[in-house]
Amino acid sequence: MMTLSPLAAIILGVVLAGWLAAAVWAIASGQRMRREGMQAQGKFDRLATLLASAPAAPVIIHPDGRMEAADRLAKWLGKPRVPNFVSELTAADGGLEPEDAAALAGEIASAQRAGKSFSVPVRGTGSSRLLLVRGAPAAPELASSGGVVLWIFDATDSQAEIRSLQSKVGQLSDALEALAGLVEAAPFPMWHRTPDLRLSLVNSAYVHAVDGGSAHDVIAQGIELVEPVGGLSPQSAAAEAVAQDEPIARMVPATIDGERRTMRVVDVPLGVAGVAGYAMDQHELEQARVEHRRLEAAQRDLLDRLSAGVARFGPDRALRFWNQPFISLFALRQEQLADSPLFERVLDQMRDARRIPEHRDFPAWRAERRDWFLSPDPREENWLLQDGTHLRVYAQPLPDGGLLLIFEDRTEQVQLSSARDTLLRVRTATFDNLFESIGVFSSDGRLQMWNSRFRSIWGATEEMLAKHPRIDDLMRDVQARLAKPQQANLVRELVRAATIERKQRAGHVGFADGRIFEFAAIPLPDGNALFTMLDVTDSRRVEQVLRDRNEALEQADQVKTAFVTNMSYELRTPLTTIAGFAEMMSAGYAGELSPSAKDYVDGILQSTGRLAMLIDNVLDLTQGEAGTLPIDRAPVDLAAVARESANRLSADAKAKGIDLAVSLENSLGVVQGDARRIGQAIDHLLDNALAHCGKGARVLLHGDGGADKARIVISDNGPGIPTAQQDAIFDPTARAGQARAGGRAGIGLPLARQLAQAHGGTLQLVSEAGQGTMIVIELPRG
């Protein structure tokens, strides 16, 4: 057994303590390094996990072309493994499109030589996947000089989104361009203000409205479209719109093209983009509104004046308007309609008044009428009420969703239509049974209507007439029945003149059997022509007889006139002789006469004088009837002529106890005429008045006149003349009949009228039984 010295033991203890300390330090350092290694490994693992989950796959390319890449690159390239060298990646079968592979190889080579970064998109062969490769020189820690680091991104989704965004950008760009074009082409001013409310955009309409040179000038000068109104400037209105964050519209005046116009200006806030605005010319619109209100008032006034009942309902089916005939027609009251009842309620009120047709299911009927509001087309119905009233109902849907109802009372029209149908049947029966032959021809000359008389006269068959032949064909078939067949042309011409020239013509035609017909072609209002024929055979015969008799009477009257004239002259010869001898005897040429003989001679003279006057009267009357009464034309003082007549008959009036008064005014004056004939007329009238008045009567001779005529009036208060006898007073034939019956046979009154008429004047008789008689002669001045 070896024994250590103390020193050696000390030295050994120190060495062992040193080794122990070193062991302890080594163990502590190992533990520390182990912890650091574990932390580094964890960090490495986290970085590896982060790198694996990164959107890009890292690739390190060494200068010799060797590659280090993530495993997912193989999946992106569609390969089972990652390429080991860059040549494999850029080869034809490396998984990239040839063009993209060549471009990538060129960019990698440039990065290796020049050390520049690059970015290039590549696409896998036969794949829709798009890879974005970003390259840069590798740090020395990753690769030696000439190395390149690639980051490969899968840009398939992002590229699709980019294309979508590009498409949207293009669409928005097109929309913006179209909107800009629309704003520019707008016929009304539009503008845009920046957030500080300065003009930044105006369209051509704005420039034109403010008479600006260009949009740039208008914006540069800040020319506003409208001026401030009520202290509110355009900028203030825009600021208010921004503050309220909603569009603000206002009506302001503006001067456009030298005219004062009313504009509706609208400011629209656009947030951070500023404020947009536009202005609409409301001048025409306001005028149109005024015109619309005026037309609506006129329409309401017109509807209120219609005889038909009118009711208008609004879109809510409430009654908005009615006229007085509507109330009267349906027996409604004003207070029932004052609160604008609904359509259904109005129908209920009409039903309560028993003024609608009876229906078993009234609610269903009312519902059907409610559908009128939704109908696209007007509706029309006929209502027959219980009291026999016929109503025509017209329902017109209105553009605003309302309904206009018009109720027309057609009761009278229905009655008139029924009466018309009855009249048509009566007319047809009458037309067919008239004695006249009647045919109606249309404007083209075809026979449209005829009666049985027409068919029998022309001997036409019903079958032929039923074909409605033209007038030419009809006359060709029946002209053999005429005495002169060529007269068929006359009938054709008359029908043509009536249908085409619209002229009425008439004529007569003879038939072969001796009958004579008068016919006429008369235009009708509807363009047709009425052709009538009347058998005048008997009337023509009677006419001929009357014509012969008239000729005989004229000859007899001429003989009578000649006889009276000759007899008047023949009677004057012995009458003149008798009067001459009587005057000689009265003068004493035959010796002194005894008183009784002298009375006889005076009686002879008086009778011959009266007989001579009667002969003159008869001769004058005969000449007057024949129109040969001689009348002189010279100025006649009517007052002098009237006084002479009064003086001549004053003795007779005095002898009969009659008061003969004369009242002649200065206005009676002078006329152009025959003084003897006028005096003769006055004599006859005075003589007639004295003859018919008794003792104590009064006869007045009055005269006056005017500027154009003179008037002589003979009136009496005698017995008067009954009305039934006044016409016979001036008829010589009737006077002769009265003489044969024992009455007075004077012809003075007829002769006086003829004398007045011969002067262009008139003689009028005014008399009443028991009230006297007045005869007025009016003579023209010229």
UniProtKB/TrEMBL annotation:
Coiled coil: 278-305
Gene Ontology MF terms in the entry: kinase activity
Assigned keywords, A-Z: Coiled coil, Kinase, Phosphoprotein, Transferase, Two-component regulatory system
Enzyme class: transferase
EC number in record: 2.7.13.3
Gene3D superfamilies hit by this protein: 1.10.287.130, Histidine kinase-like ATPase, C-terminal domain (3.30.565.10), PAS domain (3.30.450.20)
Catalytic reaction(s) noted: ATP + protein L-histidine = ADP + protein N-phospho-L-histidine
Top-level taxon: Bacteria
Histidine kinase domain span: 566-782
Protein name: histidine kinase
Lineage summary: Bacteria, Pseudomonadati, Pseudomonadota, Alphaproteobacteria, Sphingomonadales
